[in-house]
UniProtKB/TrEMBL annotation:
<dbReference type="Pfam" id="PF06702">
    <property type="entry name" value="Fam20C"/>
</dbReference>
<feature type="binding site">
    <location>
        <position position="106"/>
    </location>
    <ligand>
        <name>ATP</name>
    </ligand>
</feature>
<dbReference type="InterPro" id="IPR009581">
    <property type="entry name" value="FAM20_C"/>
</dbReference>
<feature type="domain" description="FAM20 C-terminal">
    <location>
        <begin position="175"/>
        <end position="392"/>
    </location>
</feature>
<feature type="binding site">
    <location>
        <begin position="211"/>
        <end position="214"/>
    </location>
    <ligand>
        <name>ATP</name>
    </ligand>
</feature>
<keyword id="KW-0418">Kinase</keyword>
<dbReference type="InterPro" id="IPR024869">
    <property type="entry name" value="FAM20"/>
</dbReference>
<protein>
    <submittedName>
        <fullName>FA20C kinase</fullName>
    </submittedName>
</protein>
<dbReference type="GO" id="GO:0046872">
    <property type="term" value="F:metal ion binding"/>
</dbReference>
<feature type="binding site">
    <location>
        <position position="285"/>
    </location>
    <ligand>
        <name>ATP</name>
    </ligand>
</feature>
<feature type="active site">
    <location>
        <position position="280"/>
    </location>
</feature>
<keyword id="KW-0067">ATP-binding</keyword>
<dbReference type="GO" id="GO:0004674">
    <property type="term" value="F:protein serine/threonine kinase activity"/>
</dbReference>
<feature type="binding site">
    <location>
        <position position="127"/>
    </location>
    <ligand>
        <name>ATP</name>
    </ligand>
</feature>
<keyword id="KW-0325">Glycoprotein</keyword>
<keyword id="KW-0547">Nucleotide-binding</keyword>
<dbReference type="GO" id="GO:0005794">
    <property type="term" value="C:Golgi apparatus"/>
</dbReference>
Length: 407
């Protein structure tokens, strides 16, 4: 329905190519136009096609051709300007392309086979560029959620594509040449922004992930929600859910978890995070336009895939406490546990499409198979305790002519 679309293409969107430094859509009563003089949606840049495809149920449809084209843009479009992203604990760069699209660049901080040190707290862990790429593939190709904005890996020339095009003097001043004659920079941030944690090229090439921007907040406001199962982010304190086994009952009586699909969305996100080993889900976002009846956007997945030798069972607590899951999600997980649709093999195949493949170290892929079995055992235990119909929510539209899931 019309109200399910984020934008009404005819009245909401005005693409103004003159706004190159601060790209945004103009909401004026003038004609739509492009540098070519064309007005058809087909002639919009791929990032704009992605934006106008966003709806109440997903960031993009399963067969939207603009997504593959946008992934190609992320690795091939000329970078015209670079700036540091404000806020956050670690260095991230905003890159603007020749077609006025923008993406968030997370540079490589550790190699594929390095694990998070055992004495690191989750909140002081590195953000990994390859985790962002792998999370996109897991969300899109494997779990079929389509709630992560498109992400692609890219090799960037630090001199030509960052230092020479940035107008950010604070960033520019942190470039230096290391004793090994490599180009390095460290930027400004709360953690890991110093010469000891500099990002160095070989000699000036650096890997990173590029995540396509969502529509500007001035055009599509997003609501930020505190995750009910948020960790304490304290070295000694525990969160309420860690000490109260009946915590979910309290959550289910609180809006928006007392009606609609939000609790099921949280369960989807829980499974997604557990498979990646991501402990850092403190908040989540939704598009304000759709109210409470909409999906959760799976943003900031860089702290996933840190440990392949350890399964963090505390991530699965929401599922264990609430004992609820969508039927579509449950069936998909059961399918991925079968030898012919093995999760690790499908992930490996999907990730080979990325320009900086291999994305994940083999033990991480094997860990996902192990974690999948743990999720299925948790659901099975819930069904044994509460009964199938009380645990598995039928989200299929059973109309004779359609077989669709109600996301």
């Amino acid at each position: 329905a019309e109200g399910d679309l984020l934008f009404n293409v005819n009245s909401d969107i005005r693409f103004n190519p003159r706004a190159a430094e601060q790209p945004e859509w103009q909401n004026e009563d003038n004609e739509e136009f492009l540098p070519t003089g064309e007005t058809s949606i087909d002639s919009y840049p791929n990032w704009l096609k992605f934006h106008i495809g966003i709806n109440r149920y997903e960031l993009y449809s399963r067969h939207n051709p603009a997504i593959e084209a946008l992934l190609q843009d992320l690795v091939s479009q000329k970078i015209t300007s670079v700036a540091m992203k404000s806020g956050g604990t670690q260095l991230k760069l905003i890159m603007t392309f020749q077609n006025y699209g923008q993406a968030l660049f997370k540079p490589m901080k550790q190699t594929r086979e390095q694990e998070t040190p055992p004495d690191f707290f989750y909140f002081s862990d590195y953000e990994r560029h390859n985790a962002e790429i792998a999370a996109f593939h897991l969300d899109r190709q494997i779990l079929d959620f389509r709630r992560v904005p498109p992400v692609a890996g890219r090799l960037v020339n630090m001199t030509r594509e960052i230092r020479d095009v940035t107008r950010d003097k604070k960033l520019w001043r942190t470039f230096f040449i290391s004793p090994a004659n490599n180009i390095c920079f460290y930027g400004e941030c709360s953690y890991y922004c110093s010469t000891e944690h500099a990002l160095c090229g070989k000699p000036d090439q650096i890997e990173g992930s590029l995540a396509a921007f969502l529509p500007d907040l001035s055009l599509a406001k997003r609501k930020t929600w505190r995750n009910p199962w948020r960790r304490s982010y304290h070295k000694r304190k525990k969160a309420e859910w860690e000490v109260d086994p009946d915590y979910c009952e309290e959550v289910k009586q609180t809006p928006p978890y007392d009606s609609g699909t939000r609790i099921l969305d949280i369960m989807d996100m829980t499974v997604f995070d557990f498979l990646m080993g991501n402990m850092d889900r403190h908040h989540y976002e939704t598009f304000e336009k759709f109210g409470n009846e909409t999906f959760i956007i799976h943003l900031d997945n860089g702290r996933g895939f840190g440990k392949y030798s350890h399964d963090e069972l505390s991530i699965l607590v929401p599922l264990n406490q609430c004992c609820r899951i969508r039927k579509s999600t449950y069936l998909r997980l059961q399918l991925l546990a079968k030898e012919e649709y093995k999760l690790s093999l499908l992930m490996k195949e999907s990730l080979l499409k990325d320009k900086i493949a291999p994305i994940l170290y083999q033990p991480h892929l094997e860990a996902m198979d192990r974690r999948l079995r743990i999720v299925l055992k948790a659901v099975s235990d819930c069904i044994e305790k509460d009964g199938y119909d009380n645990v598995v929510e039928n989200d299929f539209n059973t109309d004779v002519n359609t077989v669709a899931t109600e996301r």
